[in-house]
Specification:
Length: about 850
């Protein structure tokens, strides 16, 4: 075998090997001077390849960890094509900050130590950390800082030199996983020979002294790695954390000054108070690949495995100081320095034949580079924390990512993390002895979640529980469950059993009583199963002609989303209308009683704060007994009695949802109703009738000048049918739920449509004392309303009537703590078109300005 007898030049900066003219040839049992292309593949190298340098999609790459304050320009006045530099956006989480200084004075530079050259910049540094050791500790720290900077410092290299360094970087990535972390291992003969070959290949390439431009874009990632390593050194064993800042200037040269100082919340004396500790290099793990165990069994959550791999790749590179713009993740300075060292060892030995002491020294030198580029156990836990944050942001609110037990000593570059999503094992309700509720009635809302990963949609169950009569969740805490990986949810709830309300308004008609008074009582959870019994009584005055009573009952069945409902109400009324005709007075006195009975069930399809969907199926029986007397000057002329009965059914659907982007809430209701009728009038004897009802509501928040909270409200209500409907199913065009400029009895039809738009603002929130009256709101604003309705003729050959009303006005609504509410409005008609062409009836009903008033108070 041939050995080349080589001499090294005196100039250490060039470090180029020159082949002498004398070649000594002799045979040996091993080949050392082979080029990397001729070297055999290592039988000890791991089979896994390194991850690609190019980031894949999935997660947008993080912003650069550098924020520049002021444009740092070269001597020609250019800033390297980097564009405007943001001086007001330093990154959070300890982001690197480079500030501009016009020039360094000689006095300022005298305070700094020389650190070498990095990417065209002259590096100087200053360590401001001091302690009670009076200079001993700073001296230790300065040596370490100098070593860190020097590992990234080198003269500019040519393209050929950079290309020659790549095989060494590739081999180190294969070699480092093979090295034991528990102690300094000895390199094998093959490993040392391979390093000698690679060093020879590098040294054989002529060095060039190309001058690289001093651009911040070239140095940012290297500086970020230097900063990370300096901080790691000081944080070692929990000594202290430090601030590492950078100042750049082109005068007198392209200089980057590094300053190390104590954080504001720490005292400098707390740092480096044990020089023996800070000289210690903690154990690190070489990482080529990190695998997350258990990531495939997380249920239907929105998590991309590509996103997970991108997070791991990004975190691994950040923690290890991986230089994406370097050579296989290493800096050129690191590889040149190692190559020079290996060359020195080779020529100091007898052609690569190392003594045990020389092999130990070389092994320690290689391990020093490996240790500096490895990950500490604390940093591995930080990667786990980043993954935990990712999973929790996507719904797994109890997810925990941790470092499982594994053989780190033989990891060979492959490490493992594991995820524990948190499985809901049980639910417990505290204070049951103070509740009338049965525990099962509460916890069954969580039945769909037992045995599954806890995610943020568990709040849907909270929403369901809070909708139970009288029940309110005060807190919910997760505690360790009975089995490993399980959690137990502990609920604290409060209960009230009764609720009363008083209501008064002027929403009635002149015929049956304008002023109305209503009292209601709710018995919350009378049986302990989450049921509700409600009763109420309504009385009218001016005139006092109407009395109404109702009784409602609701009982959960099957699960927390399904309930059985039953309701009954009856209304006894009297209505008199007088029409003057010349000398006589003709009046109609209508007396009657209505009965309304409904039963069925309601099902909540979706119930949460963002979306609610439900449907109901009801069967109904409605009856109206009427007695009509025609009077002439008080004398009875005729009498007519009638009974209207309807057996019907209805299917209804309700949806409301929140659109955060629009700051809007939308609600929709739709129902299909069918009834078999037995009406007294001829045209109403045509059998069953189908009619459709629907309504829509939207509320959109529109802040005014950032002070007044205003909202734009739109409403729509409609009924369609081609049949004559009984009075209790007809469409009222006016009144508080129609065009408010007209009374409820102004026009009542069988089919119709109504629309309104209203803009109100809470002026209470704009007052100087708004902090004192936070529970009070006062909404004021204008509105416009319009509607159309058709009343079908009672006989087949009759003519249908119709009306078109419109009006505008202003509303005022006061609310206190949601328990006390006052609603008022004043409105004027703008359109009063009817098919008869006469508004006499409307004028008799008070056509003109309308004032509506409602007051409600709830107490429990």
């Amino acid at each position: 075998m041939l050995y080349f007898c080589l001499n090294k030049t005196v100039e250490r900066r060039v470090r180029a090997f020159v082949v002498t003219t004398v070649v000594c040839a002799f045979f040996s049992g091993a080949a050392v001077a082979a080029t990397p292309e001729q070297s055999p593949a290592s039988t000890e190298a791991p089979a896994t390849a390194l991850e690609s340098d190019a980031d894949s999609g999935g997660i947008a790459p993080a912003e650069s960890s550098v924020t520049r304050k002021g444009p740092v320009q070269d001597k020609k006045g250019n800033n390297g094509g980097q564009g405007a530099i943001n001086a007001e956006n330093p990154l959070e989480n300890g982001g690197l900050v480079i500030t501009e200084q016009p020039a360094f004075t000689a006095e300022e530079l005298a305070e700094f130590r020389e650190g070498g050259f990095v990417d065209g910049w002259r590096i100087v540094y200053k360590n401001q950390i001091d302690s009670a050791f009076q200079g001993i500790s700073p001296a230790v720290a300065n040596d370490k800082i100098d070593t860190i900077i020097q590992s990234y410092s080198s003269a500019p290299l040519s393209d050929d030199e950079l290309k020659a360094l790549k095989p060494l970087g590739q081999y180190l990535n294969l070699l480092f996983p093979e090295l034991d972390i528990s102690e300094t291992p000895l390199l094998t003969q093959y490993q040392s020979d391979r390093l000698f070959n690679l060093a020879f290949y590098i040294q054989s390439v002529p060095r060039q002294a190309d001058v690289a431009p001093a651009l911040l874009s070239n140095a940012e990632k290297t500086l970020a790695t230097i900063r990370r390593k300096i901080r790691r050194y000081f944080i070692q064993d929990g000594i202290c954390d430090v601030a590492v800042t950078f100042t750049a200037s082109h005068e007198p040269d392209a200089i980057l000054a590094i300053t190390v100082s104590a954080l504001e919340q720490q005292r400098a004396a707390d740092c480096i108070n044990r020089p023996d500790i800070v000289e210690f290099e903690g154990e690190t793990l070489w990482v080529n690949r990190i695998e997350l165990l258990g990531a495939q069994n997380l249920g239907a959550i929105s998590v991309s495995q590509k996103d997970i791999q991108n997070i791991i790749r990004r975190e691994r590179r950040e923690k290890t100081g991986y230089l994406a713009n370097g050579i296989e993740g290493f800096s050129a300075a690191e590889l040149v320095d190692l190559s020079d060292y290996i060359s020195d060892v080779y020529y100091a030995s007898k052609g690569g034949i190392l003594t045990e002491a020389e092999l130990k020294h070389m092994s320690r030198r290689v391990m020093r580079l490996r240790r500096g580029r490895g990950i500490t156990f604390e940093e591995l836990e930080e990667i786990a924390d980043s993954l935990k944050t990712y999973y929790r942001a996507r719904g797994l609110i109890l997810a925990n990512v941790y470092v499982p037990q594994q053989e780190f000593q033989y990891a060979r570059g492959e490490l493992y993390l594991a995820i524990q999503p948190g499985i809901l094992g049980s639910v417990e309700v505290r204070g049951l002895e103070n509740l009338h509720y049965d525990e099962r009635a509460i916890v069954r809302a969580f039945d769909p979640y037992i045995g599954h990963n806890v995610s943020d949609n568990i709040t849907d169950a909270y929403f369901l529980i809070n909708s139970l009569p009288g029940l309110s969740i005060q807190s919910g805490l997760f505690e360790p469950g009975k089995n490993p990986g399980e959690t137990k949810l502990v609920l604290d709830v409060t209960e009230r059993q009764f609720r009363f309300s008083l209501n008064t308004d002027n929403y009635g008609t002149r015929q049956t009583g304008v002023n109305r008074y209503l009292i209601t009582m709710d018995w919350l959870n009378p049986s302990g199963s989450g049921d509700l019994l409600s009763a109420g009584y309504l009385r009218t005055s001016s005139p006092s002609n109407s009395n109404l009573g109702f009784l409602n009952y609701q009982l959960p069945i099957f699960d927390a989303k399904t309930s059985f409902t039953m309701s009954f109400d009856t209304n006894i009324y009297e209505s008199q209308r007088t029409i003057s005709e010349l000398s006589s007075q003709i009046s109609a006195l209508i007396e009657g009683q209505t009965y309304n009975f409904n039963t069925g069930f309601n099902r909540k399809v979706e119930a949460n704060k963002d979306l609610n969907m439900s449907f109901a199926v009801l069967a109904s029986y409605k009856k109206a007994d009427t007695n009509t007397q025609i009077l002439n000057n008080g004398q009875q002329v005729s009498i007519q009695k009638g009974i209207d009965e309807t057996y019907g059914a209805s299917v209804s659907w309700h949806t409301d949802f929140l659109v955060p982007q629009m700051r809007s809430v939308f609600a929709f209701d739709f129902a299909v109703n069918y009834g078999e009728t037995d009406f007294a009038l001829a045209r109403r004897k045509d059998g069953g009738a189908v009619f459709y009802t629907g309504q829509a509501l939207s509320n959109t928040l529109i802040p005014i000048a950032g002070i007044v909270k205003s909202k734009l409200t739109t409403r729509f209500r409609g009924t369609w049918t081609d049949k004559v409907l009984p009075s209790y199913d007809q469409f009222s065009l006016g009144g508080p739920f129609g065009v408010r400029a007209f009374s409820s009895s102004a026009f009542v039809g069988d089919a119709g449509a109504f629309g309104a738009i209203e803009w109100t603002g809470d002026i209470m929130g704009a007052m100087p004392w708004r902090g004192v009256v936070a529970e009070h709101t006062l909404d004021i604003g204008p509105f416009y309303e319009e509607g159309y309705s058709t009343l079908y003729a009672l006989t087949a050959d009759g003519i249908d009537d119709w009306a078109n009303f419109a009006g505008y006005g202003f509303s005022v609504r006061y609310e206190w703590n949601r328990d006390f509410v006052i609603d008022t409005s004043v409105s004027w008609p703008t359109k009063a078109r009817i098919s008869t062409g006469s508004t006499t009836d409307l004028e008799n009903d008070g056509l003109g300005q309308q004032f509506l008033f409602s007051l409600r108070y709830i107490f429990d």
